[in-house]
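Good morning,

Both structures are done.
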Amino acid sequence: MNTTSDALERLEGRLGRLLVTGVTVSAIMLLVGLGWFLISPASAAARVLLTIGLFALMGTPMLRVAVSFVEYVRMKDWFFVATTIIVLAVLVTSVVLALRRL
């Protein structure tokens, strides 16, 4: 295998672990928060856990793009560096605009 193939395999492995970790953390927070909410609907802690779970779920794809950006810079694959910058800019803009509406 050449170095590009090795780098892409390494990137795929990292992204896979990142996605599994993000979804797992999110699922745990959501399950615990939901269980707590069902036991005590007025609990602020349950709402916090549910919110953290949702943010973890939404943040996982953003983190995936950021990790991809770093790896593409290391690989000096400038087309994908530019592409991931554009995608990251769109994601960040979406979050900023959404938070301004709160």
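Second structure follows.
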Amino acid sequence: MLSKSDKNIKEVMAQLAVLGIEAAYIVPTITGLEKSILDAHEGLRNYFRRTNFHDYGIQQQGTEFKRLEKCFFITENEIIESKVSLYRPQTKTGDPRIWFYHLNNYASAHNLLVLFVYKSNLYIVNASNSQVWKTLNIYGSPLNEFLESMASRVSLIETELLNKLVGIYKLGFQPSTTNSDNGVGDTLENLLGIKRNSSRSPDYKGIELKAARLSSRTNSQLNRSNLFSKIPNWELSTLKNGSEILDKFGYYPNNTDHRKALHVTLNNKPNAQGLYLELNTDQYLIENLRKTTYSIEKIVLWKLDELETELEKKHNKTFWIKAEAKLINRHEHFLYKIVEATSNPMITNFGTLVSTGSITVDYTFSEKERSSGKIYARDHGYLWKIAPSDFALLFPPKRIFDLSNISVA
């Protein structure tokens, strides 16, 4: 299990994120090293499938269907060829297994192994070995040269959109279309001529747009970045809809309001309601649990691969647009100043970032009253967000455009 790692996985992810490199991770156990067999957990399997290295999902059980491939250990001074075994045993449900020949020469129990697929080959680095991992920043070392070779760099559509954003910047401060928090995004879409709709597709010809306010004091982003909205898997969840969540955990915002609300953020620590998120690596789930004095209660859950798919689909290309906000005649106005362009998020990092509290989900429920007087539950979405300080752990290095000082063709 990754949680048993003797190396801080978040630190490793951060170092690779600077280079825009995604990897998979595995932590061998004492038993695994003794028996020369390791579990190929779901995160690793997904990484292999997405990189076209190996698909356990279509592999048949039994030693006759075992697949042997070349792999390479990257050490302090050299890259050493070996073999990797990929198979599903005949017993039980054929849980996927993996083994790297001669692994015991390069790793001990609980070491953090970083796996890279590059040009159809598999490379392994022991991040727990400080003598090896520190060479990441040593020019000319095998690890440094390998990572540099993995690390490319605007399309016509990006140029078109940047030109429009420069034009919007030149208009100066523009009045918000709404008095709500989402005014910064809604106003931008209105200026770009994008009609409001419920589509889950990217906003502008394949480019997702995310607008945020800048702090007037620090000129940095104020709030978490909204990644996407994704409902739980109701079929597998204990509670079956948002109305049940609101009914069980909702509160009355003030003494005069007779309608419940539930506006809370869930991370890896229990909140006031005892609600929190946990990564279930065995079943590849994100679970919303509730901790009480005497027990842990299951509430709802998401399949992690479905969250990863949503992230990949939504943010293949994204413009994160930062705006200065100020009140003019007591009405909020925006000046869109900075564009941060990203592409190809590091999908494999998503689950780990949930487990460390870097990625959160917001519940936004409230009871509303129909004209008939009937009360119903209003669900504004299950909003998955990431803190600005951890943004680089999910997205490769961004290209930054200052709209006041760029020239685009």
